[in-house]
Each structure stands twice: as C-alpha cells, then as structure tokens.
C-alpha cells in the first residue's frame, strides 16, 4: 500500500509487480475501509495484487510512505504535461505544488494562454475546482470548531507551532495542519474570513514580541504605522543572514503601506531578499507587482539590478548583462557600491555569453568611475574586472597586479562574493591551492550568511581549482553538488556550467560514454540560452572524447567550429596541440600554444608550465626529450599525477617510435600504474597496449582493489536502495554507464548481488 497524497506515485511500483502477478488491481481512496480491508485479505491468497493509494492509515496492511517528488522530477512531469513550458513558470509551479504529482497535473491543466506566454503571473493557488482543494474544503467543513480554528491559524501564519496549540485539535486537523505552501494557499482562500480574523487576533495576543506578533497586531488593528516596525525587523533579519524572514517582513510592510512609491520600495527589498535566499521565481513575482507602482529612476535601476541578478542564473546572459549595465549607470550617482556590484555581475554575465565586446564595455565603464581612494569593498570588484579583461586580451603582465590585489583584498571584505572573485583570480594566476581555499570559503560563507544564490557559482571555482590540483574526486563532488544546488534554486545556467565541467572530468579520465551523456544533457540549454562559456567547456570535453577515440581531426574541428570563450580556449590549448600534431598540422598547434605559453610563463603556474613543455615536446624534434623530461619534473612538482601519466604515455610512444624501447617501457609502466590508481580504464588499456608494443609481454594490468570516486558514489547509492535508473538520474550518467560501473564494482569488491554489496559497505 502506498501512503501519501491520494493518487501520488502509484506508477512507481507498477513495473515492479507486473511481471510477478497475473492481475493487478489499483485503488485510489482517501481511507481504507472495512470492505477494502477484506478485499486485500482475499487477494492475498491469489496470484493477484492489490495496490492501494491512500492518505489514511494502513490498518495493518504492508505499506510504503511516499516522499514528495523532488524539483528535477517535478519539472520533468510538468514538461511532459505541457511541452515547451517556460522555465520560470515551471519553477513557480514546482514551488507551489511542493512535490505533489496530482497538484502538478491540476496546476498544469489550469494554465491560461496568457500565463503560458509569460504575460500573466503564475497561479498562487490551486484552481477553484481542483480535486485536492475540494477534498481539503470538505475535510475542513467536517472538523470541530476547535480544529477549524487551528487550521485557520495555519492559514494566516505558516510558523505556528503545534506544541503551543490544543494537541487534540491539531490531531483532528491532520493533513490540514500543514505548513506547505500548497495547502496554505488553498486554506487562505477557503477558510471563512471571520475565522481568519479570529486567528490573527489570537496570535496577536499570544505570540511573544517580535515581527510575527507585530504583523498580526497590524492586521487586527488596521494600524499602518506598524509597517516601520516590520521594516526594522526585516533589516535585522537581513543583517543576520536570514533572508527568507527579511523577505517575509518586507512583504508584510508593503501590504500595510498605502503610498505606491514606498510600497514599491518595500517590495523591492523583499524581492532582493528572495533572490539572495535562492527563490528567484518568488522574487520575479514580487517585482512584477512593484514595477506597476513606481517610476522613480533609482528604484527602477534597483529593480534592474535584482532582475539582472536573477537572469544571470536562469535566463539569457547577454540580456542580463545589458540590464545590469543599465542598473549600474542608474545607480552610480546615488548608490555607488551597488553600481559597482552591478558591474561585477554584468561582467560575469558577459563572460557566460562569451561576449568580449560587452565585457570590454563593462570593464571600461568600471575604469571610468574608479576613484583614487577606492574602499576595499568596491576596489576588489573593479580590480577583478580590470585583471580579467587584461587576461582575456592576453595582456598578462597588466593582469597580474590587479588579480593579485583581488586575492589579497579578499581577507578584508566580508561575505562570499569577495571570495568568489578571489578564487577566480587565483585560478587565473595558477595558484590552484589558494583558489580552492577561497572557493571553499565562499561556499561556507554563502551558506552561513543565507546567500544561497551564490552557492552554485562558488562551487564552479571549487570544482575547477580541484581539477587544476588534479584532485578529481574533489572536483567531481563539487560539480555534482553544484548541479543539485543550482537545480534546487532554479539557476539553470549554473546547472549547465556544472554539467559541462562534469563532462570534462569524465572525458579527461577517458570515460567517453559518461562525458557524451552529460554533454547531451546540457546541449539544448547551451543553444537556447546562448551559454558560450559552458558551451566551450562542452566542446573541450567533446574534443577530449575524440582524442581518446583516436579521432584527432574531429577533435580539431570541435575547436575550429566552436566560436568559443576566449579564456577557456586558451585553457584547452594543450589538447588542441595534441590534436593538431596528430593531424600533421604543426602550424595550427604552434598558433594555439603561443598564448598558453605566454599565460603559463607570466603566471609561473607549475602545472601549466608542465603542459606547455609537453606541447613543445610534441612539436619539436631535436629538443623533444628535454621538453618531455622537464614536463615530467614539473608534473611531479605540482602533484598533477593524471597529467603526468598522459605525458609519460605520449613520451613513451615517441621513444618507442624512435627505437628506444627500454626507455619507453620505463615511462609507460609508470603511466599504467597511475592510470590504474585513477581507475581510468580507457587509459590503462591504451598505455598497456603501448607497453606491449614496446616489448613488455608481462604488462597486463591487475585489478585495483579500491573504487574510483564515481564508483564509490554509485556503490553508496545502490547500498541505500537506489535503482540503476535512479543512480543515473542522481549522478547525471547514462543507464548503461551505471550498469557498466556496477559490474566493475561487484568484480573489485568480490560481491555477486546488491544485498552482498550493502553488507560489504555497512
């Protein structure tokens, strides 16, 4: 029996029983009555199965309590119901439905053409004729007066604590005593007004002093003067990092305010707090209301700042950049610190779009407004823009002092944003350890301060810096966490960023199937939204797949055909060189290598200098050995073992073809050992084949007893009861890849079933 919202999740078990029983009877009821109980007992002695979906008690029948659908699954359901549903509207519906499948169906069915076209806002409540809403209304009517009053309190205050109320009445109210937005919105519409007024009055008398009590007092007494008190509470909540509470109190202050401009000001603050808390769709809804109330230039500019920040994560980045530039221009004379922040976000939006022209315009405007006595809070953003523009232009000597200042200033400026800028700057400078420290600190600061909107962004640089450190397990964890964090708060662009980083990680390990699956998952969004930066990451990953499959010409075409992000194309240069050399096109390789050599040489990054020497080893003839030996030394100094193995594989191949098999075998054995430690099966096979070609007949690789980071993730999820398809969805892998990894896990751990695997991992 399935317990949860009636009708929810019934199909989850159908496939599990259809091959076991001759007949399957599905029943969807609010409660299990005596007749149904007798039927269940009768069916138990046959080759039939009875599946009951109910919200009631199981009455002794075997039962499973269903969890709500997660956000990703809810969005898939909506897109199945309404193909082409706008992403912002889908996010609004997902939040309202709270994981209830029936609510998703009824909300999708109620959408108007104006809502689908983006003209009208998303619904705030289930339709009047919704079966769920009719059911709740009937339940409410059947309650005792005491229980109805308890439900009314939930309708007017989501933070009501059951322990402070009549527990018998709470028990009677049952599912209606629910703080989820789905139930609350329906109750606010359906609970009679006298009961709601009584609930406000009771709470105004019984709650301790604070924002909640002030709100209920204001509703009860109609005292608009209490809006100032709510504003004070909201500002205090914001300073404490409680953006959700700050948004609530600013919104309530707006409801008590008659003056349109002042009301718009309160709503604008509420919208900014919703955005910071990671609820961009709610922020947009509030801003739609605020926009109708003001024509003040400063408020309009502040709205552009908030909307631009939302668009940065979930919409077209070039549109976000233009809106943020407009916000900066409107605020520079009155709210200079916010104007500089808008420029920082505009630069990031232009970078995501791969629009060098826009980035240059942003950085030049930042240069124009710069002052001699710039405080650290604004200087860090201005120096970041200056340094990154110089980097994109290849002016690394000019970039270095600005980017070093950004790293140094991060300790003086509170909050996560400064640490994100510092992490990016340190990454460009080649200081991977410092970049990883700053990114990790930014993630922690964003979570502790409640600034949820910045978490996925910070995780991008935690993943990239871990990759530069050759810490693939840490990079995999950060990027996977980034996908889920961005999905949870509707930052679709950040989801794509992390998916393409995950694709690159898989491609570098030679796991082509996983890399291609992740690229395919991201491609549609890259194209629709103009996401050039993740698109270039995706092309880079695809090129690595082509190289792994011995298709260097295809790899080279990936880079030629992709317009590309200037900075990432430089980062990918070592693979361009590898492809061009394999195609017999040294001039193309040399042109790609020159900007990379200049960047690596200026910053002094040991890991990048190693790659630079490897590339020269591939290109040169007389000095190739010296370049390869220096690359190997630098790889070891930087601790980048996987790249060391690839260098030794390339060098071993060159030595073998140069009729130096003994020297080749030394490097190739080392390469095999390292690839085995990374569980990079493709590269183990490639290096082993090369080793055999060099005359080593005893070079068959042995199974490593440990698991790769990805295999460990899969094993843990399987041990927790996840199916292969659930694991694939969770880790953004193909179903076939999960099956492949699971077979290897069983072999390496010496187990034969999921049950044995679970016992082994306990």
Automatic annotation (TrEMBL):
Superkingdom classification of source: Bacteria
CDD domains found in the cross-reference section: LuxR_C_like (cd06170)
Single GO MF annotation: DNA binding
InterPro entries listed in its UniProt record: Sig_transdc_resp-reg_C-effctor, Tscrpt_reg_LuxR_C, WH-like_DNA-bd_sf
KW Transcription (keyword) present: yes
Transmembrane segments: none
Domain HTH luxR-type: 700-762
UniProtKB keywords: DNA-binding, Transcription, Transcription regulation
PROSITE patterns linked: HTH_LUXR_1 (PS00622), HTH_LUXR_2 (PS50043)
Pfam families: GerE (PF00196)
Gene3D superfamilies tied to this protein: Winged helix-like DNA-binding domain superfamily/Winged helix DNA-binding domain (1.10.10.10)
Keyword Transcription: yes
Swiss-Prot/TrEMBL GO biological process terms: regulation of DNA-templated transcription
Record-given protein name: Regulatory protein, luxR family
Source species: Lentzea flaviverrucosa
């Amino acid at each position: 029996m399935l317990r949860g919202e009636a009708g929810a999740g019934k199909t989850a078990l159908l496939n599990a029983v259809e091959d076991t029983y001759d007949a399957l009877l599905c029943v969807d009821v609010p409660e299990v009555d005596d007749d149904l109980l007798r039927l269940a007992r009768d069916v138990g002695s046959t080759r039939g199965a009875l599946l009951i979906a109910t919200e009631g008690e199981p009455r002794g029948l075997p039962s499973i309590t269903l969890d709500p659908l997660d956000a990703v699954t809810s969005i898939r359901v909506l897109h199945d119901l309404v193909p082409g549903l706008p992403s912002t509207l889908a996010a609004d519906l997902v939040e309202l439905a709270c994981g209830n499948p029936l609510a998703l169906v009824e909300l999708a069915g109620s959408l108007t053409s104006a809502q689908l076209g983006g003209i009208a806002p998303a619904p705030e409540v289930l339709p009047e004729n919704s079966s769920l809403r009719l059911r709740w209304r009937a339940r409410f009517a059947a309650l005792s007066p005491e229980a109805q009053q308890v439900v009314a309190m939930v309708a007017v205050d989501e933070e009501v604590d059951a322990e402070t109320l009549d527990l018998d009445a709470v028990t009677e109210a049952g599912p209606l005593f629910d703080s989820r937005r789905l139930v609350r919105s329906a109750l606010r519409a359906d609970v009679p007004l006298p009961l709601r007024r009584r609930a406000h009055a009771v709470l105004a008398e019984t709650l301790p002093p604070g924002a909640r009590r002030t709100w209920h007092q204001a509703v009860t007494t109609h005292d608009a003067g209490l809006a100032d008190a709510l504003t004070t509470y909201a500002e205090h909540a914001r300073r404490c990092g409680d953006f959700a509470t700050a948004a609530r109190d600013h919104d309530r202050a707006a409801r008590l305010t008659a003056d349109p401009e002042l009301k718009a000001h309160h709503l604008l603050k509420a919208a900014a707090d919703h955005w910071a808390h990671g609820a961009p769709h709610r922020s947009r809804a509030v801003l739609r209301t605020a926009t109708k109330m003001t024509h003040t230039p400063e408020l309009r500019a502040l709205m552009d700042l908030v909307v631009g920040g939302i668009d940065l994560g979930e919409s077209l980045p070039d549109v976000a950049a233009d809106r943020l530039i407009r916000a900066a221009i409107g605020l520079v004379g009155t709210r200079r610190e916010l104007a500089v922040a808008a420029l920082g976000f505009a630069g990031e939006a232009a970078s995501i779009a791969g629009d060098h022209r826009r980035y240059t315009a942003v950085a030049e405007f930042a240069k124009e407004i710069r002052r001699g006595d710039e405080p650290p809070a604004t200087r860090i953003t201005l120096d970041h823009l200056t340094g990154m523009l110089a980097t994109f232009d290849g002016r690394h000597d000019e970039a270095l002092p600005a980017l070093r200042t950004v790293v140094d200033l991060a300790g003086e400026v509170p909050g996560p944003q400064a640490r994100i800028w510092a992490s990016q700057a340190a990454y460009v400078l080649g200081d991977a350890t410092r970049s990883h420290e700053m990114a990790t600190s930014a993630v922690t600061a964003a979570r502790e301060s409640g600034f949820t909107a910045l978490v996925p962004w910070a995780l991008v640089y935690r993943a990239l810096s871990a990759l530069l450190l050759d810490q693939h397990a840490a990079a995999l964890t950060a990027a996977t966490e980034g996908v889920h964090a961005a999905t949870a708060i509707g930052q679709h662009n950040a989801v794509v960023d992390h998916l393409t980083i995950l694709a690159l990680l898989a491609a570098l390990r030679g796991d082509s199937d996983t890399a291609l699956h992740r690229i395919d998952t991201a491609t549609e969004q890259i194209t629709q939204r103009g996401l050039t930066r993740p698109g270039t990451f995706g092309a880079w990953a695809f090129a690595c797949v082509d190289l792994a499959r011995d298709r260097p010409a295809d790899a080279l075409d990936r880079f030629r055909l992709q317009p590309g992000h200037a900075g990432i194309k430089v980062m990918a240069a070592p693979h361009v060189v590898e492809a061009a050399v394999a195609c017999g096109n040294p001039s193309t390789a040399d042109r790609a290598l020159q900007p990379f050599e200049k960047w690596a040489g200026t910053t002094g990054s040991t890991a990048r200098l190693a790659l630079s020497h490897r590339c020269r080893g591939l290109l040169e003839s007389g000095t190739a050995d010296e370049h390869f030996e220096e690359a190997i030394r630098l790889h070891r100094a930087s601790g980048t073992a996987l790249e060391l193995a690839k260098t030794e594989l390339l060098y071993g191949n060159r030595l073998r073809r140069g009729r130096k098999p003994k020297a080749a075998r030394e490097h190739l054995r080392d390469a095999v050992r390292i690839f085995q430690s990374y569980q990079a099966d493709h590269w183990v096979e490639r290096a082993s084949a090369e080793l055999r070609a060099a005359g080593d007949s005893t070079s068959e690789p042995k199974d490593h007893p440990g698991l790769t980071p990805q295999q460990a993730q899969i094993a843990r999820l399987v041990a927790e009861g996840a199916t292969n398809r659930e694991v694939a969805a969770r880790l953004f892998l193909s179903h076939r890849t999960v099956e492949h990894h699971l077979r290897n896990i069983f072999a390496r751990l010496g187990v034969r079933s999921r049950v044995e695997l679970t016992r082994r991992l306990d």
